[in-house]
Design a protein that fits this description.
alpha+beta; Phosphatidylethanolamine-binding Protein; three-stranded antiparallel β-sheet; 3 helices
């Protein structure tokens, strides 16, 4: 079917008007930004610097806890938890290097060295037990303990994770003691709290010797 000139002009005018209408429509808000975790001291996938390696058990690092930064926490977040875990340790159950609980929702970073003493953590937060408990290698229980895998092994992975919780006090919410192991807290975080665990973000770095 052929259109006469008048019909074709009418068609193109209608089409052009439609384009103008689409162009003038408001832009839909972008999807909410993702919850993210990073460190200015450790790049994901990189080798951990000697500054953050344990000073003990045959290692000669400085054992300084690295800085961590997180952004875009889920709505309703009331506290954060940090855990650092080595899944490659030859223990049958991995190895927990650092845990920090009840970090207030207003906090979005831990400075380098924050894990080396209770007074350096944000008010209300506390360093939980890790697998250096009672060894003295971290200067005190609850402090950061850096990587120190056995010599000659393939580089171990160290998983840094931040959890966002809809509760202000993980121990009160779960009915567990502050002295509970990192594994017990891990169960609470990944299962026990249910939908009160709003989100988690991780990155992994490596170290071997």
């Amino acid at each position: 079917m052929r259109l006469n000139v008048s019909t074709r002009l009418s068609f193109f005018a209608t089409f052009a008007a439609g384009l103008v209408c689409v162009a003038s429509m408001p832009v839909v808000a972008q999807e909410a930004e993702r919850f993210t975790l990073s460190s200015p001291d450790i790049a994901p996938g990189s080798k951990i610097d000697n500054k953050f390696v344990l000073n003990g058990f045959g290692c000669s690092g400085q054992n300084v806890s690295p800085a961590l930064e997180w952004k875009n926490a889920p709505a309703g977040t009331k506290s954060f938890v940090v855990q650092v875990y080595d899944p490659d340790a030859p223990t049958g159950s991995g190895f927990w290097h650092w845990t920090v609980y009840n970090i207030p929702a207003s906090v979005t970073q831990l400075a380098s060295g924050a894990g080396n003493g209770a007074a350096s953590l944000p008010a209300g937060a506390y360093g939980g037990t890790n697998d250096f408990l009672d060894t003295g290698a971290t200067g005190g229980n609850g402090n950061y303990g850096g990587p120190c895998p056995p010599e000659g092994e393939k580089a171990h992975r160290y998983v840094f994770t931040v959890y966002a919780l809809a509760v202000a006090d993980i121990d009160a919410a779960a009915g567990i003691p502050k002295t509970g192991t990192a594994g017990l807290h891990g169960f609470v975080l990944n299962k026990g709290l249910g939908d009160k665990m709003l989100g988690k973000v991780s990155f992994t770095a490596k170290y071997g010797r």
